[in-house]
Specification:
Elements (H helix, E strand, L loop, with lengths): L20 H30 L2 E7 L5 H16 L3 E7 L3 H9 L5 E5 L8 E16 L24 E5 L3 H13 L8 E5 L4 H6 L5 E6 L4 H9 L8 E2 L5 H7 L4 E5 L15 E13 L4 H18 L24 H7 L6 H54 L3 H24 L4 H27 L2 H13 L3
Parallel strand pairs: 1-2, 1-3, 5-6, 5-7
Antiparallel strand pairs: 3-10, 4-7, 4-8, 4-10, 9-10
Helix pairs in contact: 1-10, 2-8, 8-9, 10-11, 10-12, 11-12
Amino acid sequence: MFARSMTEGLDFVGPTLPAPRLAKQKTMFITLAGILAVVGALAGGYYFAMRPVTLRIAVGPTNSDDVKLVQALTQAFSHAHGQVHLRPMQTDDAAASAQALADGKADLAIIRGDLDVPKNAQAVATLRKNVAVLWVPPAAKGKGKKAGSKITKIAQLSGHRIGVVGRTPANVNLLTVILKQYGIDPNKVDIVQFPAGEAADAIRNQRADAYLAAGPVNSKITADVIAASTRDGGTPTFLAIDSAEAIAQNHPMYESAEIPAGAFGGSPGRPDEEVKTISFAHHIVARKGLSESTVAAFTRQLFAIRQTLMAEFPLAAKIETPDTDKDAVIPVHPGAAAYVDGEEKTFLDRYSDFIWWGLMGLSAMGSAGAWFAGYLKKDERSNNSSLRERLLDMLGAARRSDSTEELDQMQTEADDILRETLQCFEHGAIEEGALTAFNIALEQFHNAVADRKALLMSMPQNLQRANVALRASGTM
């Protein structure tokens, strides 16, 4: 289709041709960089959204059932390779855990519902329900009737010593609420606290007339101290909180509850019949500003793992979903509410807008890249136009040439123009129609060169020299 040069080894004649490969490389690099930037942004966003998050959870006191349960949850979360991991922060008690959450030192905390709840706390789950247990040990046989053995109602506690199991001030506050409901001045009773590990010995040594314990119905600590109250065949007397509804009405953090007959074991069962009391909850709460998706993921993992922990920690069976009512004592976290209501958002739900804008950005960058590529090819197209004009000029010059050497040089230049034009076509700088037009001009040039050479070779040498001389003198 295209004619080849008739001579080789001649020096290039004509203007220096630019290197269009540089423009092509720039276009490729810019387009590739834009695509990689958008893909990298999307991949980074996905990693940021789905990477494991470690939440600090405040819990106390040391060696309590709550601490053991949180430690088990921490290990289970780690082995499950879920989106949320836990890092326990041990505190002195539930009040200290609440303060850690209020100060922003913890992301989650286990708190008592009857304590001051931090303003930035939102409920994630109800860990368990605790009941208040008030009882009077039986009198020791052979030593006469003790004052404690005459107590059968809460109203009779005035002037007596009441032992509180556990060192937390929250249990004392609980006892105070009960006493005030029955019109008893707390200052007219002697309240003494015993650590959980020493309470059984204190009861055996009759160091108080009545006792209060707070914990789950199946609490081993409560069952042990009540068992220590059983002596010489006698059984403790359980004091019913008949005003439980009134207390719950005046103090929304408490609820009316019942202790089932035989809840604390023994024969006959302790208690021997159902006892009315009040209850309060231990909650898992989260910081108000914690991500909704993170809390939803934590709640989902918590209830998924709960079943596997029940064999080792029976208290895990008590974990319940939070109260999602608007008038709940502790407002529910939106992430936990989304899980409970089945409205938890998927990755696409949460980030569809970002993905859409990312795709729009990619499209815009593609359009900008195409425009920029066209802009870079503008010089290449302009240069090719000048080369085509040069070829047409060479066509006229070939028909007037009187030297085969000059024709060979123009042939070599035409070969270079052909090479440059093909490169422009490969780079997309010129269309197929422009290449066809160039092909016609090149073919005409080759025909003109061939015809002129044939004419010159048929002329005598002296006539050729005369023509050259005349052309040089300007007379032709």
